[in-house]
Design goal:
mainly alpha
């Protein structure tokens, strides 16, 4: 087919292809350390990638595009593929970079746990003990995870990685259990406060879990999944993906649209992996 007529007859598909190319090239340049200069607190390359991603997200949700049936499905699939390319915690380009990313998340995790500690005071008297019991292990778990993340960064050995794998899996299970317990709180106001506090921890622990997966072997991931007795499917109704996307977007300094796709994609990936 003549490329000029193809562009003219299929403008949205052609635009999507161009944006995907821009995102792909930007991802490669970022991995190679090419910045093309500074742009605010980031670089020109990351800015161009973010803009292209946002435009692709808008294009995928264009009402005119939705009316095209199979074309819409194809465009949505390509949008996910393109968004997967710059996924911050699954690039796996460097074990050291991923380890540093995990360490960078630990202050936010500990802050979220501190919020959990203060949430009991906002609950009805009958609900506070239930919440406190459900989240009792969060402080120790977050401290141990932060310690092991720093240990792996300092010494990225098989032993320290195994310890990190075990701890993040254990913590994720504690969070899942807490979500199920909080969901049983009958008082609507108490339940809302309880779930919101735990959901913030869940978003960060889930991200760290995905980071650890990205530097783990298939056999190790299988062991982690097997140790996850409370599956993601059981707690997914109580997860707040919108809140998780805001946390991810703020941490990585990226558009909320990109973070929303990333959170959804990671959730799906972990579910398929058996978590």
């Amino acid at each position: 087919m003549n490329p000029i007529s193809n562009i003219w007859n299929h403008p949205k598909t052609s635009a999507a292809g161009l944006l995907i190319s821009v995102i792909t090239v930007a991802g490669v340049l970022s991995q190679q350390g090419v910045t093309l200069g500074a742009a605010g607190t980031g670089t020109v390359v990351t800015l161009v990638s973010a803009v292209a991603t946002a435009l692709l997200g808008l294009l995928a949700r264009d009402p005119a595009t939705r009316q095209s049936g199979s074309s819409s499905a194809k465009l949505g699939a390509w949008a996910l593929i393109a968004l997967l390319l710059p996924l911050p915690w699954l690039q796996g380009c460097s074990g050291t970079a991923v380890a540093q990313d995990i360490v960078n998340w630990t202050p936010a995790l500990q802050s979220a746990v501190t919020t959990v500690d203060s949430t009991a005071a906002l609950l009805a008297p009958a609900d506070a003990p239930i919440f406190s019991a459900a989240t009792a292990g969060f402080d120790a778990a977050s401290t141990l995870l932060a310690t092991q993340a720093k240990a792996y960064l300092a010494n990225p050995s098989a032993t320290t990685l195994a310890q990190l794998q075990t701890q993040v899996t254990t913590f994720a299970q504690q969070v899942n259990s807490a979500l199920l317990q909080a969901a049983k709180i009958v008082n609507p106001a108490s339940q809302q406060h309880a779930l919101a506090a735990i959901q913030a921890v869940a978003a960060i622990v889930g991200t760290i879990l995905a980071l650890v997966q990205s530097i783990s072997s298939k056999a190790a991931v299988a062991r982690m999944a097997a140790a996850s007795t409370i599956k993601l499917a059981a707690v997914e109704p109580y997860l707040n993906n919108a809140s998780a996307a805001r946390i991810v977007a703020a941490h990585y300094g990226e558009p909320i649209t990109q973070a929303q796709f990333q959170v959804a994609l990671v959730t799906r990936t972990e579910s398929v992996a058996g978590f």
